[in-house]
Amino acid sequence: MKYMKLGTKPDTFYTVEAIRSVASDIPADLIIHVKNTKYQLHKFPLLLKCGLLQRLCSDSDDGGDPVPVALHDIPGGEEAFELCAKFCYGIAISISAANLVPTMLAARFLRMTEAVAKGNLVAKLESFFDSCVLQGWKDSIAALQAAWRISGWSESRIVQPCIDSIVEKILMPPSKVTWSYTYTRPGYTRRAHQSVPKDWWTEDVSELDIEVFRSVLSTVRASRLLPPPLIGEALHVYACKHLADPLHAGAGAGGGGNGDAAAAANGVLHHHAQSSAAAGGEETLARQRRVLESIVTMIPGEAGAVTGRFLLRLLRVANFVGASSSTRAQLVRQAGSQLDEARATDLLIPLPADPQAYDVGAAEAVLEHFLAQFQRPAAPDERRRMSAAMAKVARIFDEYLRIIALDGDFPVGKFVDLAECLPDIARSDHDGLYYAIDTYLKEHPELSKAEKKRLCRLIDCRKLSPEVRAQAISNDRMPLRTIVQLLFVEQERAMGGGGAGTTVAPDQASVDAISRLTARTKDDEPGPSADHKSDVHRPRGDHARAADSTAMTRSLSASTKTAAAAASRKERTPDERGSRTRRSKQ
């Protein structure tokens, strides 16, 4: 940051009983009130350079009492006025981008122009502004922010040149960037002779108020010299700085992978929405709402300009601050088209009225917009890309279900409806769905048998991996008939894997499950009745299935005995087996 020093005398201003004075042998003959501060000064140096004070004091008597003057409307307040007064006294002052704008506006207010005195303050400040401040990067941003906060768009002589200077530097190739800038991305370490990142400017411009930021970014976009993802990155940086994520920072957008589910399981996924609302009140919510809606309107329409995770973060904020329905609808639509880029925790959208509850309807709406893409005709390459995206979304949504299942108050009917939001073809396997349902069963031990059956009917046992199927068979939380299905599939796999005329022994988990199944059948199940017809989702194959669970148990028990006999035959020596083979050939 560059500085300009004016004056040479030492600072002789002092304060006595809330009155600011300057050390002098001459009594004060001018009293100036600036807001809450009273100044006892002298006409001689001030009237020589301030045209406004000349006019206000023109009717006063030279030999009377000190002339009172009220300057409550002076831009920049007491600090800016005091700098102007010190300049009149010849006291040394230091001007930088931080105090240039309020001092310049105060000097113009006091009419410290060349028409009043040669080498006056306004001319010196304007020269410094043009030759130094506008040439610097951070100086231009500091001056723009100060001008905006003091006078808004009304001070166009400062605001517009600053915007033009900032935009010009943003549009320069990174190889020509020679000034200092702020860049604090995680994992980034600046080294000597390192190339400048393309988004080098995004953090510094995020310091601007939203109206000025919008003006700068709109001008940059109008040039069409920067790619849409770079504009999207600037919006992302600004949102992260000014809009707190309603989810806990430790488990929000920066979290990762399996840690998200673990954090949710340990209760780390908390909300600070209520505390934020209490601290800032309605004014804070209104400001955040204005920032959010401005950011949403600036999102480029090109695909990939922003990430799906960023869109879901904005949706969480929109829900919290009470954004307009059109803003939320736009975010739901855009987030749905990029849902395959998200993580499970990104779909956790807090309800502003309840810090422990999530807006499941919003997550459903996002999924519906994702699925709506498949109803439109698409080229073969696009169709393959969408199929891969569908597989990713199925895994994401099943993990989301697993997190939602941790809520002890979440109704089983709503959980089933959520799980059925994905069409059958979306899940290439049901491992994730199984884990979600098992978590729900674990967290809701009070479920009735009918409710457990309703849940587990969602699982297609044929779509479980061997490892998960083995785990499910030994899972006491699974309903009896689900275990029957699993054992049936396991038997089919074993028989199919051994080839014609060969019996493959079931694994130990299946044998143990058969024993438990037999006991549970006697205790829990009535005799064969009409109830066995359709209340269990049975795996579908090319042929009809055996109907009732008792017969299934007998069949599996028989296969176990056969497998034991086969195992005893395996104990024969190689010579015995060879002779048997030879005899069969004869």
Describe this protein's structure:
The chain has 24 helices and nine strands. With 586 residues, the chain is α/β, with parallel strands linked by helices. A five-stranded mixed sheet has the order 2-3-5-4-6, with helices on one face. α4 (97-109) packs across α6 (137-151) and α13 runs antiparallel to α14 (325-337). The N and C termini lie far apart (101 Å).
Which properties best describe this structure?
alpha/beta, five-stranded mixed beta sheet, two-stranded antiparallel ribbon, 24 helices, 9 strands, 54% helix, 6% strand
How are the strands of the largest sheet arranged?
Answer: 2-3-5-4-6
Beta strands, count: 9
Distance, first to last CA? 101 Å
Going by helix content, strand content and strand pairing, the class is alpha/beta
Oligomer: single chain
Mean pLDDT over the full residue set: 83
In DSSP terms, counting alpha (H) and pi (I) runs of 4 or more, how many helices?
24
Assign a percent range to the helix content. Answer: 40-55%
